[in-house]
Amino acid sequence: MTAAQTLIRGRLLSFLRSPEGLDDTASYDYCGDGALLVEGGIIIAVGPYAEVSAQAGAEVAEIDHRPHLILPGLIDCHVHFPQMQVIGSYAANLLEWLNAYTFPEECRFVESAHAARIATKFFDELLRNGTTTAAAFCSVHKTSADAFFAESLKRGTRMIAGKVMMDRNAPQGLLDTPQSGYDETRAVIAEWHGKGRNHVAITPRFAITSTPEQMTMAGALAREFPDLHIQTHLSENHDEIAYTGSLYPDAADYTDIYAHYGLLGPKTLLGHAIHLSEREADAISDAGAIAVHCPTSNLFLGSGLFPLKAFQRRSKPLRIAVATDIGGGSSYSMLKTMDEAYKIQQLLGERLNPLESFYHMTLGNAEALALSDRIGTLAVGSDADFVVLDAAATPAMALRMETVKTLAEELFLLQTLGDDRSTVETYVAGRRSKPRETASQLPEEQEAR
Ligand SMILES: [Zn+2]
After folding, report:
1. Alpha carbon of 114 to ligand 1 centroid (Å)
2. How far away, in angstroms, is 88 Cα from ligand 1 center?
């Protein structure tokens, strides 16, 4: 018998806003012996264990995760699900990496059986790493979007994804046309948007692989479906920027291309956005669009150092999200992602403290996606998506934990040495969802106290 409610006990941590410094204790809620009461996939009570357990009904299953931390599920704001089999491909730079490895690999997603197999693996890998929501690029083929959303529906996850639109500068097997890209995106929206917790995004890959005619059609979709996210790439690499300029000679700059076609707004996710002029940064800020920082990818492909702190300090600050960018990125883990983000700021002479990092992985990314009413939080009424983290998951981490004295130190250890091994459990809509080979790690579950 399945209990109607689940009571999940542990140390609760959730952010209320962006932390202003390491001593900004008002930016988060922390409860050393807390509990979440979940029913129907929603958090119905949260707070100290003694108070929350008193509110539970008779039909409750209790799971004790002490001494581990429970946070809102991690969020990845830019990732390519058809690139699982090109991670770690040896290339000099972005354009070589795309042409030599990534485009040929994405051609395989015309086959629905292949797309379905990789979608299963992709969700396994995200959930193994505690990531419960992602903004994902599929391939150009509608089959890939169908496979992605079907898997998401099966898992019950809140996901954003789109069929990629691209009609030039790629192999024939990866090209749509302005009309078919428009029609198939509309078909994906009709079939999947709002089904379960799925969100469809309008997804022109980037200006290099779309003709002006296709950009016009993408802009038409943005006008017809103003609530949808738009995701694309911007200013990742100097050669890419120069090539883009040659393809759109009338545009003031790269950002201006997206603005011109009506694709720059408050739900636009701009992957990378590293090398921006002041004019471009102003335009992005004015539009309320989001610069999505992908640190492991930027280092792996040698693309550049994202000036996160400088972007936040501007008189017109940028909204910033963080992401893995698999398969240009080299880890599915948002912990590893923020470890590399920290190092990039170090190289720029800036500090990124661990409270900020964990804010970005959770509430910060939820705000960037305009979904903070549902995810990135442990507030009553929001989706019951959580990650349970163990900062002593490996022998080396356990040894270091002996000297850790504060919550911030524990978070920084998790970020620096943690990965999927630190994810004890992942909850999707209140259900235990971390894939595992054995059940030996499961803590005791007591049905109907
Ligand atoms: Zn990307």
Report:
1. 21
2. 15
* pLDDT for 449 beyond 90: no
Residue 303 tokens, joined: 């693309």
CB atoms within 10 A of CB 441: 11
pTM: 0.96
- Alpha carbon of 76 to ligand 1 centroid (Å): 12
Cβ burial of 250 (10 Å; 0-12, 13-18, 19+) is exposed
Cα distances (angstroms) measured from residue 149 to each of 105, 134, 196, 230, 387:
20, 12, 9, 17, 22
**Tokens, residue 168:** 């030039």
What average pLDDT is seen over the chain? 96
CA of 24 to the centre of ligand 1 (A): 33
CA of 423 to the centre of ligand 1 (A): 25
Sign of the torsion angle spanned by Cα atoms 330, 331, 335, 337: positive
Residue 138 clears pLDDT 60, i.e. is over it:
yes
Q: How far is the CA of 173 from the centre of ligand 1 (A)?
A: 19
Strands (E), 366-405: 386-389
Strand partners, 201: 229
* Model confidence pLDDT, tens digit, residues 196-231: 999 999 999 999 999 999 999 999 999 999 999 999
Whether residue 237 contacts residue 301, with contact meaning beta carbons closer than 8 Å, is answered with yes
Residue 179 CA to ligand 1 centre (angstroms): 24
Rounded Cα gap, residues 280 and 287, in angstroms? 11
DSSP codes of every residue in 403-418: T--SHHHHHHHHHHH-
